[in-house]
Amino acid sequence: MLYLVLILIVGTLIAAIIGLISSHKGEENPIHIPEGSCATCNGVNDLCEQTCTMIQSTKEIEYFNDEELDAYKGRLSDQYTDEEVAAFSEVLYTMNQNEVKDWNRSLILRGINLPDQLKDEVILLISNN
Question: Which end of the chain is more exposed for a tag (fewer CB within 10 A), N or C?
């Protein structure tokens, strides 16, 4: 019986020592997650896009000389007239191509749905950037 108790105590001590050694090895080589900016999101990694959208939602909304589009907040994307689509087009085609992704994110955060007629063009401009 004494031998059984000694074996149990020695086994527990060995397990504790192995556990401590294992935990210290993890501290020597911590996992480094590469830090990037939202400018590095390319649309392929949904997690990157979600993270950047969450980050953007905590910041002040950026406008692109398009304050007049706030009138369309909550409008469904398939319910725009040709004149209203032209207002979106004017903003889209007067900005730099590298701003389109940020403009789209701004519209999303402001609750403005992009008209269906422009979605393909916006996707094309974003993907070519």
Answer: N
pLDDT digits 0-9 by tens, 65-76: 999 999 999 999
Token representation of residue 4: 């059984």
Phi-psi region of 127 (alpha: psi -120 to 50; beta: other; left: phi over 0): alpha
- The burial class, CB within 10 Å (0-12 / 13-18 / 19+), for 109 is middle
HSE-CB for 35 with a 13 A CA cutoff: 0
CA angle 103, 104, 109 (to 5 degrees): 95
pLDDT in tens, 74-100: 999 999 999 999 999 999 999 999 999
Q: Kindly list the distances between the CA atom of residue 87 and the CA atoms of 42, 68, 78, 79, 126, in Å, as whole numbers in the listed order.
A: 27, 9, 15, 14, 19
How remote is the C-alpha of 66 from its chain's centroid? 23
Q: Is the pTM of this model over 0.70?
A: no
